[in-house]
């Protein structure tokens, strides 16, 4: 199984930037980006601390919510289920050897056995386990309307 690439969680500066952005009635990017950057650089570490703390909380939350493994096919589901048994059977085997053995095992399955994995894969796909779930509230590309906790 492969893990899905995750969006980057919000950092302290982005949290600060979004808070200040709400206070600026008419935002002009060419003018205000520089001002925000200078403001951030001139802040003391004590003033920045709440942003770093919130960023840490959001990162932990983001990590917990996005540790979903992606299964791309019924064969991938079969391999994931069989991998531990193969490792126990052949403890000194390399990852390449294990993959090769799993490939041979899958090819040797009957259509009936393969259909079992196809059915399970379709069920997982319905529940969106196969694609992962990104939490837009903890990601940079998320909504900007409400960032309070």
Give a written overview of the molecule:
The protein is mainly alpha-helical and 149 residues long. The chain folds into two domains: 2-68 and 132-138, Orthogonal Bundle (DNA Binding (I), subunit A), CATH 1.10.30; 73-126, High mobility group box domain (DNA Binding (I), subunit A, Orthogonal Bundle), CATH 1.10.30.10. Helices cover 62% and strands 3% of the residues. It has a two-stranded antiparallel ribbon with strand order 1-2.
In percent terms, what proportion of residues is strand?
under 5%
Largest sheet report = 2 strands, antiparallel
* Shape designation: elongated
The termini sit apart by 34 Å
Which segments are poorly predicted (pLDDT under 50) over 5 or more consecutive residues?
Answer: 129-149
By DSSP, the count of extended strands is 2
CATH superfamily of the largest domain: High mobility group box domain
Please state the second-level CATH architecture of the largest domain: Orthogonal Bundle
Q: Strands across the major sheet, in which order?
A: 1-2
Structural class: mainly alpha
What is the N-to-C succession of helices and strands? EHHHEHHH
Helix content: 55-70%
